[in-house]
């Protein structure tokens, strides 16, 4: 038994230092010595997961759970694998079992918090994250996860405290610098500009550098240093675009394929499902989608489910294509052969695990669902769809100045002003296409109109969504639900005109974008 404990410790230590061959050998030895115990299978699963072999890791961890079904550590890691494999419902069930049993292990608690965050339940994630930090206060990754969750849930002071604690221990921690910068508006009297400049000068990792430059640009803009903010953003985006080797032709091919597929589509195989619970809020990012989500979810009959990948994944699954991309020309064409009712069923099954309990309706506010309007209409004909529209120039600038998920193909266009303008033009064209194909199905909802006439536009929004008037929708900024988007700080304030015409501060730098829109016949005023 003592020898087996040493093997277990050896495997775990090898995993911790990243020595996967040694960890794998130790885990195999443990399986040979104690085949009826789960530990060897569990450790071998972790080795496979660290190597990126999720399909291999999952059956191994399931073998561990067969031998020890109530082990909270196994359940938490099982949930993590399931969420990475986009099997959200099973992940939610595994996490529920861990929460019921409890755990004193910091890594297990942090893993539970991360899975809950991926499920969109940021409020519930706070407690396990706090537990992980309490047990290992020096673990900066655990503390960062807690800080981010505090920011998402409006615990601004707590988030700031945790970010500062991380930076005291690791002055170059780029994630924390960025999280702190976007947490609130900075002032000339209180900002982190000098500290950010020093951190950016020391940074060598490209991901760190882009985060630090975005943080610096945001704070420079906050304190009125518009020219320096623009120059910093331009440098950050130019360098990062070069690294990811983005070519607008990739996105253009997707737009072309979607339009061609629906333009030539025959009658749908079925009329879809009758379910009317979903309200899709779509549009270009940074155009007010989070704001509208907050307005709608302030209604007593509506809750926010966040930015779900449920529809893109349902379409991909129904298409049956083997490509790694969720949307590509092959998938766009193949999905047209799928039964719309099947897509609806796949979507509702995936969305169910993200829907807050107790509300009859829910908002799915993934902006990129504008690519899937055709499938939404065909598969869920009673669902309501709202598309946010904002001044094209403000849209381009807001996309360019906000750091999205750097690993997501959805936002690869945003590291170049002209690429973003081209993307907007194709978005605009696709929305016009959907309006011709499905007249009246999508409410084109203007951000500026909402800001300038809040009550009238809110009534229009609620009417389109089949909702009764609710005064609480005018007080959306009092909504305490979590917000996990760059708009978190803005939507906790009442409406104001600060975001209208903001691009004009950088009119000289955006002259080429303006000329492009004028040549395309896209009105900018």
UniProtKB/TrEMBL annotation:
Gene Ontology MF, one: protein-tyrosine sulfotransferase activity
Lineage of origin: Bacteria, Pseudomonadati, Pseudomonadota, Alphaproteobacteria, Sphingomonadales
Protein name: Sulfotransferase
Keyword Signal: no
Species the sequence originates in: Novosphingobium malaysiense
Intervals holding TPR repeats: 38-71, 106-139
PROSITE patterns, per the entry: TPR
Protein keywords: TPR repeat, Transferase
A Pfam family hit: Sulfotransfer_3
Record flagged with keyword Cell wall biogenesis/degradation: no
